[in-house]
Structures are given as structure tokens and as C-alpha cells.
Design goal:
By secondary structure, this protein is α+β, with helices and mostly antiparallel strands. 20% of the residues lie in helices and 25% in strands. Among the domains are: 43 residues; 105 residues, Sandwich (Immunoglobulin-like), CATH 2.60.40. The longest helix is centred in the first third of the chain and has 23 residues.
């Protein structure tokens, strides 16, 4: 843009000088009239040559290097996070037990009075109200209280299906001393795992009253 303005200014000054010279110079009567177009053309050619030489000698501006953009950082691939499996809570409903016994009846009522050392036979009738069958290895076991002279275990000796009943008979003997006594027994499996429903018997031991032997008085 600067070189173009310089060229235009030089050209305009040259033309002005040419016109001023043409207007102020007296025209001799005897000399031939010069060709103004030829003069203008030569002056313009001279100015154009001078301007062209100046432009050739003027160094061209060095282009500034374009800024180098820093490479964008390469993003590391993100590992896909697998969702953790939902935790499932398993709730086990109580079944009431696989082995359960229900008292049905007994041969001797509670608080029955016995003499000291008296022998009696006790029978419990039980119903299988559990989900498992009772095998021949199931047994009735002493649990607490007094044994009343009976063995501490009595094998069932038969199969009792769920819903069926069974009678278990034990021979016992009352204690020698007067008082109130109780014995507790419980059903158990072959591996001696007790049921949760024990059965019991409560008795009273008392000394019998003496019988009077006085003879009646005769009337005279």
C-alpha cells in the first residue's frame, strides 16, 4: 500500500511539472510547436521506470510465521464401569420346625396321690404335627425333674407319619418321701436333637391314714 501511494504521488508531481512548463514557456514564432502528447508519454514512461526500479529495490516484507498450535492432548480411553449386581436379600420364612410333637392325653392325671414307693404305669399319647416322619430311632428322653425310677431314654420302635398319633408307656415308681414331684420328658431325633414341646407328670406322695381296729363295746 505504501509503494502504490508513492507511485501515485510521483506521477502526479511529474504531470503537474509538465503542464506548468507547457503553460509558462513562450512560443517562439520561428520555432515549430512541440508535440505535447509525445512529451507527456515520455515523462510518464520515465516516472514509471523510476517507480518500477524503486519497487524492485525495496525488499518485500517477510511474512510472519503463523503460530503453531499445540497438539490437543489425547484423552485416555475411559474404562467402562460395569454396574455392580443388585444385592438380593433372601428371607427364609420360619416353617415351625421339621419335628414337632403335640400332647394329646395321658393315662395318669396330674396331682394324683401315690403312696411312698408305689409302682404305677404312665402312658403319654402324642401326635406328630411336624413335617418329618418319626422313625424307629426317635425316642422319648428324660428332660428334668425326677426320673421316678424309669430309664432315661425309651426308643419309639415304630414309624409315625405326620398327623398320626403314638402311645408311649413307661413304668415308674413314686418316691419314698412324701411331697409333690414332677418329671419332664421330651421327644428327640435319632441324632438326639430335642423337640421344643416337652411333656410332664406331677404327682403327690402321701402316707396313707391309719385304719382304726378298736372292737365295739358289748351292751350288757
Amino acid at each position: 500500500m505504501t509503494q502504490t501511494r508513492k507511485f501515485v504521488a510521483v506521477f502526479a508531481i511529474t504531470l503537474s511539472l509538465v503542464f506548468m512548463a507547457a503553460c509558462s514557456s513562450p512560443t517562439p514564432t520561428s520555432a515549430p510547436t512541440p508535440d505535447l502528447d509525445l512529451v507527456r508519454t515520455e515523462a510518464a514512461a520515465t516516472v514509471f521506470a523510476q517507480v518500477t526500479r524503486d519497487l524492485a529495490l525495496t525488499p518485500s516484507p517477510t511474512p510472519l510465521p503463523s503460530p503453531t498450535l499445540a497438539p490437543s492432548p489425547t484423552l485416555e480411553p475411559t474404562e467402562a464401569v460395569e454396574p455392580s449386581p443388585a444385592t438380593t436379600t433372601v428371607v427364609i420364612a420360619p416353617t415351625g420346625g421339621e419335628n414337632r410333637a403335640e400332647w394329646v392325653s395321658q393315662s395318669i392325671a396330674d396331682d394324683t396321690v401315690f403312696a411312698p414307693g408305689e409302682i404305677f404305669t404312665m402312658t403319654w399319647q402324642l401326635r406328630n404335627v411336624g413335617a418329618s416322619s418319626w422313625t424307629v430311632g426317635y425316642r422319648l428322653r428324660f428332660y428334668s425333674g425326677e426320673t421316678f425310677g424309669a430309664p432315661t431314654e425309651l426308643l419309639l420302635g415304630q414309624i409315625v407319619l405326620p398327623g398320626d398319633t403314638v402311645e408311649i408307656t413307661i413304668q415308674m415308681r413314686a418316691p419314698n418321701n412324701p411331697g409333690t414331684y414332677r418329671t419332664d420328658w421330651v421327644m428327640s431325633t435319632e441324632s438326639l436333637a430335642n423337640f421344643n414341646e416337652p411333656v410332664f407328670l406331677r404327682i403327690i406322695v402321701a402316707v396313707p391314714l391309719a385304719t382304726s381296729t378298736t372292737a365295739p363295746t358289748s351292751t350288757p
